[in-house]
Structures are given as structure tokens and as C-alpha cells.
Amino acid sequence: MYRGRLERDLSVWVEKGLLPEATAGALLSEYDARPASFSLGKVLMILAAILLGAAILLVIASNWEAIPRLVRLAVILAAIWTVHLGAAAMLRRGAIAAASGLLVIGTLSFGGAISLVGQMYQLSGDELTVMYLWFAIAAVSAVLFRSGVVAAVAGFLSWGSFAAYLNTYDTRWVGLEPWIVPLMAAVVIGLVRFTGADRVRHLAYLLLVGWLAWLYAVNENFWLALGYAVGGMLAFVLVSLPLSRRSTLIRTAGSAPAFYTFLVAMIGLFLLHVELEHGWQFITLALVTLGAAVLAIALQGRDNGAVRYLAYTAFAVEMLYLASVTVGSILGTSSLFLFSGLFVAAVAWIVIRLERRFAMRNPEATR
Amino acid sequence: MSIFTRQNSGRRYVVAAIIVAALQTAVLGYVIESRASILRSGADALLKTAPVDPRDFLRGDYVVLNYDISSVPVGSIVGGVPQDQGKKSLWVRLKPGEGGFSGIVESSFERLPEQPGTVVLHSRPFYSYGPNSADHIRVEYGIERYYVPEGQGTALEKARQGGDVSIAIRVGSDGTAQIRSLLVDGKPAYDEPLY
């Protein structure tokens, strides 16, 4: 975790005399005092809430005749009201963790209540509508309570909705409905910005990447793959350029947009590799891939560890693939291993040179 | 996980709680009332079935119902099947026939007008492949599940082996079907209160 690294770095700086010990201590205690810092108690509280929410769902699912259904409906409605009013009371007292837990239970209870109504009236085939409704209610709750944890629940419900869509329509593209998925991702990102639940944004980005992957699966098409590669790379460059990095919108989005746009570009390039296996197109594609990896390292290599590793991996894999395709066919098995060994060593040398080069150039690149 | 901004007054949260809880209550109330109103004032029809028995984690035990009217003969479709593929739904006109069980008289991709002595059902949306598809179209009406007390799904399945299971439905004016009761040998197997 970040705190561990921070503590280690601070102690190194104190040893080297770069930092007085008192300052190091003050820095650490400032970090610990932040509301965002990790707290086992809070995490356990949320886990407890999820378990309790699941228990509510299961009570609804079983015990069919033990309690009359109107009573069960009344109980679950009472639970919804109690839990939300309880959360408000907790927030007034500043007990944020307890309030978050209660809100999670409240949001999950809605799923339980709606499935109970489904049982009462023998409803079938409405799962998708239910998921959309559930997501909408979670989003409203996240906004009104400004709750990051409920934003996370909404993030998972957006995945659930996408899964329900794929299930309902047999993974086919039907009408305008698939556009709901990017819309939900946008809503989740909005919630993330509003509630400050930074990590939840990955749920939205992953949903989008998954959606793009599905899009290619329904429509395996050279131009679509090319679109991913070009569009992803353009978006990546756009969010990485020093000029646009100064814009508040991009700066506050953290390192995630750069990584995910680059990931989409790499997915596109990978799909293109599947489409094009021979000839000058293949060589061009390989060179473009290598160039994209180098560009990514140049633009984001220092600040963004995830982009850096993805770019190195793409670079190395592309080199090895190129070698196996071009040289592998000429050589026998044993000489292939010999050659591969030498080649991996060469790639390692190039990558290390690249790393060093960017490390040296970076001081002047800092803003 | 920075979660809440604290500076807000407590009243704001109470208002938020009331809005969210009321919203959930309203959605549930709307679903319940829309179903109860079909049960109160819908048109009756009796359907022949052939149930099977899977399980569902969230919704307890239920039997999957399959009806004679679930496969619509293409020949019965007035105006034919639309050329374009995509999300479509069928309106199906039912008329009581032999033994009181309703059968398909005609169907259409357009809304069918009301006629005395018949009931018009609206299917759930499905993916239509256009006119060159098979001679039957499989549709669902949102009445394909019957929830039974935990562990009794198999008992019901046995009852089906002995005698006929049929489903009495009521249909709203917009064609929405609602299960009223499950009948084994013509007798209701469970109580079906309005709420």
C-alpha cells in the first residue's frame, strides 16, 4: 500500500538528512488523518453491510410460506425506511462508516423487495428492467447522500445490467438499448466525480472496455479493430499531451484515462494482428505497434506505472512475435531456442536502454 | 474512499433519506398496483401448459411454464412478418375453444383491435429474424414462471404427470397478461390473494 511505501521513503530521506525527523512524522500523521486513508474498521463495516443485504435477499428467496407475503413486504419496506433514516441519523452524528453500511443495505434491499413482488405476481422476463431500475435507484441514492460506497454499488449494478442485457438478448445487438451501457458508465463516472470515490471509476472504465470487446465479438470486423487502435491511441495522446494535462477535467481524472485508452488501443492492435497475418500489412502493423508502445512510454512512462508496464509488455511481446514469425520458419527447433534466448536478451537490452533514456530525459520533461 | 462531505446540515440527509425511501416505495407500489389492477378487472382466459422445473437463486423455487400459445403459427399472422430484423413484439388474439382452453385465432405485429368474446395478449419483445424464418415464432408473455413454496416444485411436477396443469390468467387492456391461479385437474392448487 501507498502508506507503507511513503513510510519507507520518508525514513530513507530522514537517514540521508534530507528531511528532519519531525517533518517526516508530521507528514505521516497528516496522511493518516485524511478521511480517504485505509481503515480496516470501515472495510469490515461495508462487508458486514453486504452480508446483511445478502441475508435480506435470501430471506425473501426462501421461507416462502413461513411468513405471509404481505407481512414480508411490510417488513422489507420498513427495513428500507429504517435503514435510510438510520443512515441520515448516522451522518448527522458524523458516523460515516456506519451510514455507508446502512445505505448499502438500503440499496440492496430494493433488489430483494422487487424480487419479492416478482414472486407475488409470478412475473417473468423483466430482469433487465429491474436491473435498470435498481441501477437508477442506486445512482439517486449515491447523489442525494453523496455516498462513494453507494456509487460503487451502482458501478456493480451497471455490470449486472450489462450481464442481464447479454442474457436477455442472447449477446445480440438489439435496437438502441446497448447504448445504455456507455450511458451507465458515464453516470458512474459522474457519481465518482461527485462523491469523490476515485477507485470506483475503474468499474466504469472496465465496463466500457468490456462493452467494446463485446461489440467486436458481435461484429468481427477489420475496421472496428482499426477504430479501436486509432481511436484508443488518439484518445490516449489527447489525455497525455502536456497541454491537455493542464485541463482540470483530465488532471482530476487521475491516471486511469491514459491507461484505459491505451488498453483499448492495444486491444485494437491485438485484434488487427488476428486479422492480418502476412505480407507488408503485417510488417506495417508490427512497426505501428512498436511505435505505439514507445510513444506511450514517452508520453506517460514516468508518471503512469500501469501504462509503462502495458507498453513494455506490448513492445516485448510484439518483438518476440515478429521474431517467431519471420525467423522461426527458417530455423529448426533447437536453433530456434538458441535464437530466442539471444533475442530475448536483445529485447531486454533495448527495453533497459529505453527505460534509462526516458529516465534521463525526464528531468527536463518535468513541468 | 473519501465518502461524504461533512459540512452539510443534518436536515439535508433526512430529506435525502425520505426521497430515496419514498422513491423505492413508489416503484414497488406502482408494480404491485399495476398487477393487482389487472387481477381485479382484466379479461379471463384459460391456458394449457407443460411445466418444467429449474431453480432460481434469487426468486426461490418456481416452475417454468410453457404454453400451447407460446408458439405462434406464422400462418396466423395478419399482415405477415415485417421485413426488417430486430426487436419486435406480437399481439395475439385468443378465443376459448375445446374444454375452455384458449387458442390463437389470429396474431399481428401491429396492435389488434378489441373484439367481443376474444382476448388480445401482447407478447414480450423478442428478436425477429424476418419473414424467411420457420413456420412458428416462439414468444413469451411474461407469465412463464410460477413460484411455488420451497421444495414443492417437484411435487407440482408429479401432479402434472397425473393430471393436467392449466393456468388461469387475466389480461389488462394493454394486453399484459397476469397469472391468476395455477389449476391442477381444474382445481386451484394455491391461494392467490390480490396482494
Name its key features.
heterodimer, A: 367 residues, mainly alpha, 16 helices, 0% strand, globular, B: 195 residues, alpha+beta, 2 domains, 2 helices, 14 strands, 22% helix, disordered N terminus
* Uncertain residue segments of chain A: none
Sketch the major β-sheet of chain A.
none
From the spread of the alpha carbons, the general shape of chain B counts as globular
Structural class of chain B: alpha+beta
What can you see in these coordinates?
The complex is a heterodimer of chains A (367) and B (195). Chain A contains 16 helices and no strands. Chain A is mainly α. Among the domains of chain A are: 1-38, no CATH class; 220-367, no CATH class. In chain A, α5 (96-120) packs parallel to α7 (148-168) and α13 runs parallel beside α15. Chain A is globular and about 75 Å long. Chain B has 195 residues and is an alpha+beta fold. Chain B has two domains: 1-41; 43-188, no CATH class. Chain B has two helices and 14 strands. Chain B has helices at 10-41, 153-162; strands spanning 43-48, 62-64, 71-73, 77-78, 86-88, 91-96, 102-108, 119-122, 126-128, 136-138, 145-147, 165-171, 177-184, 187-188. In chain B, strands 1-12-13-14 form a four-stranded antiparallel β-sheet. A four-stranded mixed β-sheet of chain B has the order 4-7-6-8, with no helix packed on it. A two-stranded antiparallel ribbon of chain B has the order 2-11. In chain B, β6 and β7 (102-108) form a beta hairpin. The interface between A and B is large, with 64 and 49 residues.
